[in-house]
Amino acid sequence: MSRGTTAPTPPGPADPGQTGGTPLKLRLGVVSGDLALGLLCRGAAALVLLMLVALVGLLGHAALPSLRAFGADYFTSAEWRPNELTRPLRGPDGRVVVVDGERQTETLPPRFGALPVIYGTVATSLIALVFAVPLSLGAALFLVRVAPRWRAAAPVAFLIEFLAAIPSLAYGMWGAFVLVPFLGRHVEPLVFRALGDVTWLKFLFYRDNPVTGQSIRIPLEGRDMMAGGLILAIMILPIVTAVARDVLRAVPRSQIEGSLALGATWWQSSRAMLRYGRAGLFGAVMLGLARAAGETMAVTLVVGNRVEIVPSPFASIQTMASLLANQFNDPVTEVHRSALIGVALILLVISLLFNIVARSLVVGGQSRTALSD
Amino acid sequence: MSTLHDRAKRLTSAAAYAGSIACAVVIVGVLLLVLADLVRRGAGGLSWAFFAADAQGEPAGMRHAIEGTLILVALASAVGVPTGVLAGVYLSEYSKERWLATPVRFTADVLAGVPSIVVGILGYELLVVPLTGYSAWAGAAGLAFIMIPIVARTTEEMLRLVPHSYREASIALGGTKSQTILRVVLPGASGSIVTGIILALARIAGETAPLLFTILGASMITRDPSKPFPALTHQIYVWANSPDPSRRDMAFAGMLVLIAVVFAISLGIRLTVARAQRRR
To answer: Which residue of B has its CA nearest to A239?
Structure first.
C-alpha cells in the first residue's frame, strides 16, 4: 500500500519481549490492556451475533403456538378474523335456515390466515418498484453522466441523501393528508369516468360482497393499495437512486471511453454502462424492495387497513407491517398475539432474504470493478 | 441508408439523454413538493407553547415528547455507541480471526435491514412482557438494536481508511496492540466515526415503529425510565390520527422540528466534509 515504508524490524505485534526492560508492573498493565481491549471487542462482536439469534429465536418461539394450531392454513387461508363470527346459518340451497319461526345461527371460531397481508405487501411493493425503478435508473444516469457537466451533481446528490434521511413517518403524514385526498377527489374519479364502462376492467371498480356475493362498487376514497404503492415509490426513490449512482460510478472509465472511441452515441455507451453494472443495479432494486416490504409508518397511514384480498388497486388493504402496527398493541387473545408474531417472522425472513441477495450483488459488483481497474 | 440509420441512432440517443434529465427533474420535483408541503403545514403549528407545554397544557405542546426523545436517544446511545464502535474495531483490527469476523460482518449487514416494526415486537417480547410493562428501557433497547449494526459497519469502514503504515509505525515504536488501536488508529478516524454516530442518532430519533409497543407514550413530562414514556415520533403518530385539527397541526409542527434537525445535521456534515477536502 504505502510504498515508502519498509517493513520494520521485528518484534511482531504485541510482542511482550519489546517491553523487556520495563518494570514488571507496567508490563502487566500493558499486557492486560491488550487482553481487556481484545475481550471487549470480541464481546461486542459476539453481541452482534447474539442479537440476530435472539431476534429469530424469540420470534420463532412466540409464533410457534399459532403455526402449530393452524398449520398450512396459516399460509393459505385468506381469512384473518381475531374474533368469533356469529352469522345466520344457511342451508345447502343458500337460504337462511328457520326452525319454529326462529332463524338459526352458527358460530365460527377465530381464524388466522396470513395470505391477505402477504398479498398486500407484495402488491404495494411491486407498485412501488414499477414507479420508482425507471425513474431512479434515469436519475442515476443523469447524476453520473450529465450532471457533472453542469455542476449539478453535488446539490442533487445532497437533496437525495437528505430526503433519504427524513423519518418515514413524514412521508406517511404527507401521504395521508395530501396524496390520499388528491387521489380520492381528482385522480380516481377521473380513472373511473374513463374506464368504468370497460367490461374487462370491471375488476378495478367492483368487488364481491363477502356475505351476499353480490357485486358492489369499491368506494374510491384514495385510502387504498395505490396510495400505499405510490408513497412507497416516493420513499425508495432516494435510496435506489443513491445506490444505483454508486454502482454506475464504479464502472471503469475505460469501458465508456472505449465505446465512445468506437463511435457509440451517448445512449449506446450508457446502455453499455447499465449492462456492465447490471448485477449491482439489481442489488439496488432489491434494497429498495426490502425497504418497501418492511416499511411500516408510511403505509399504515394510507392503505385503509382492511385485511382482505380484493384484486383492485383501488381497494383498501393491509400489509404485514401495517397489520402489526394496527393490531399488536391490543390483541384479542393469546392466539391472536402469537399469530401476529408469526406475521412478524414472515416479514423478517422475507426482508433478510432480500437484503442478503442485495448486499451480495452490490458488493460483488463493486469488488469486480475494483479488480479490473 | 447509413446516414438515415445514423440519424435514427442520434435521435434515440438525444431522447434518452432528455429522458434521464426528465427522470432527475421528476424525482427532485416530487421530493421538493413533499418537503414544501411538510414545511408549510408544520410552520403553521409552531408556537411558543409547542416548545413550552406538554400535551395536557392549555394550549397543548410537545415539550414532553421532545424531552422524551432526547432521553431515549441518550439511553440508546449509552449502550449503542460503545458496543457499535467496539464491534467496528473488532471487524477492522481483529479481522484475521475470520471464523468470527466474517459471520459478524454479515450479521451486522443483515441486522441493518431488519424492518424496525419487527425490532419493536422483539422489544415487547424481551423487555415489556417479562418486566413490569411499558418503559423507556424497552424503547431505548429497541433503538440501540437499530443503532449498533449501523455504527459497527461505519466504524469498520472508517478504520480501514487509516493507512496501514500508521499501525506499523506504532508497533515499530514498541506500541502494543491496544496502544496502537486506542492512541493511533481510533484518533486517526475519530472525525468520520463521530459523523457516522451523529447520522445514526438522527436515524433513531426519527424511528416510530420500534416505540409503538415498547414505550406506550405519555402526555406529560416523565423522567422515570421504568414508566410509560413519551417520544416525539410517537406523539406525532398519535396526533396525526386524531380527529382534532389543532392536534394534527401540532403533529405537522413536530415533524417539521425533526426534519429541521435532520437537515441541520446533513448540511453540517456536508460542509465539514467539503472543507476537509479543500484543505487536503
So the answer is: B27
